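Escalation from tier 1.

The customer reports that the assembly of two entities below gives different structure tokens on two consecutive runs. Tier 1 could not reproduce it. I'm attaching the input and our single run for tier 2 to review.
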Amino acid sequence: MKSQQAGLFIVSIFLLALPLWVKSDVVLTILVFSWLQGMLAVSFNLIFGFTGQLSMFHAAAFGVAAYATHLFMQHLGVGYWTAVVLAALLVSVLSIIVGTICFRFRLKEFYFAVVTLAFSEMARLTVLNWNDVTNGSLGINLQEKPWLLGFKVDGTVPWYYLSLFALAATLLVCWRVVHSWMGRCFSAIRLNDELGDTLGINVFRYKLAAFVAGNVIAAIAGSLYAFYLGSLEPGFLSIDQSLGIVAMVLLGGRSSVFAPVAGALLLTALPHLIHFSAEVRSIVYGSILILTILVLPQGIYGSIAALLRKRHAA
Amino acid sequence: MGQLLLGQLLNGAILGTLYGIIALGVTLTFGITGIVNFALGVFMMLGAYAAWYFTDVAGLPYPLAVPCAVAVTALAGLIADQGLFRFTRNNLVNGLLVSIGMIAVLEASALLIWTSTPKELHRVLPGVFVIFGFVLPKMKLLVFGLLLAVIIATYMALTRTWIGRAAYAYAQNPEAAQLMGVRTSRLQTGVVVYSTALAGLGGALYASLYSLEPTLGSLFVLKAVEAAILAGIGSVIGSLFGGIILGVTEGVGSIYLPLAFRDAYGLVFLVAILLFKPAGLFAGRR
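Tier 1 run:
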């Protein structure tokens, strides 16, 4: 445990000090995107990896919150952070509705995935076609930048720290949840929810808790992402976005809180580091996905852990 | 109004058989290998482009190009099965992701090869029928008839022959089927390849009606999965009706409700079915 804490300490110092000598805007930009995608992957893993529910609603939570933040700011005249909280509240209400429908009717596995996908698509179609409010497929340009502690968060370095902090907070929350009694209930549901039910675990309540918690974190990630990017588009809510999140989690490894960040880093950074056309990038992405499933079914983390265990035993 | 309604009904039914043929592939693949093959959409796209290639570039007559296109798609399906899907049997999430990876690779390759400019096939069978004042192209009716025939033939084959019994036996109890002499791995490969061939046929026929783009399959496969679930996964004849119900719902729905939400009606319907009749409309029926 001591060595793990030391490792965590070194990694955090390294990441905090990174902008001091890495001056390349491209690298830092990729890292900001990776941290925000990492938030999505980690929060999705709470629902998928720990509770065993393949949710396809993550992109919707992400996108709806991104739009809602902007709309609350514009129409209610509130500041950015208030709007983020309101957007997160909106997403939690939506998640409670969708989650209650799915879990009350005991939808599982593939059927759960399909129904959440259906709700996600309805959200996307609404955003795409509600032209007066969302400007349809053209999207919206966001000029405003958030203020934090009297500083305007503008430019790559402040965003680097903001996104890193948000990711660290996400990891901390997920870590605490997974390693609590709640996390053990999640595991019980993942392994056998009927058995969990007979043991007195309120399966419905914990499934809903995981679903809502994951979606709220995704909502915060969405609000940050949109304002860093400076634009909103219906593509935020697309199926590809949801599947990209699944891919990151599987590539990183679904059995650990931290591992999905590795997947997010790899899948976000790799296509940008090599200069390819969009098509070739898509081919590389698809190949990574297929190879991960066939060669590293446990993800990077699981494979390394298995290797270390073997080394240890020998 | 009556004419418009009738027109949308017929159009919806015709589009519905296209959903149905892909849905049949989805149902068969899921029943025998336990995965949902979203890549059937790209196999449909492959079939469509192959049909276009054989008629417009190689100069074959269209009736000959369709079997060629189906053969090409089936071959691609065999390669995909032996190279990829063989390793994901009965693992839903892995199968899903492998098929998503295949979609990314194949769609991007199609974009590189054929670009996003729509391809247009020469008119195969011009002319129209006029029924009750409603104009219906002959080719649409022909496609409708062909797809209907293929789905019914598949249904017959699965309910009346030894192979069909083997497939149902396998779906019920894999070990018992194996002990009774069913060559299970061959059966699985056969079903996966047959499903891709069906998707290829759907694509080749689609090519005669609409213009082609590399992304044409992704919408169809979603609709097909919807149709298969609507009908109840595992029901062969249900996939036909599921497709038609979906097509008609969209067609008729877009008369009375805003057109922009056309794709949502099916989803609402699907959610309602899953909540109140979770096994599907044709549950327990072959």
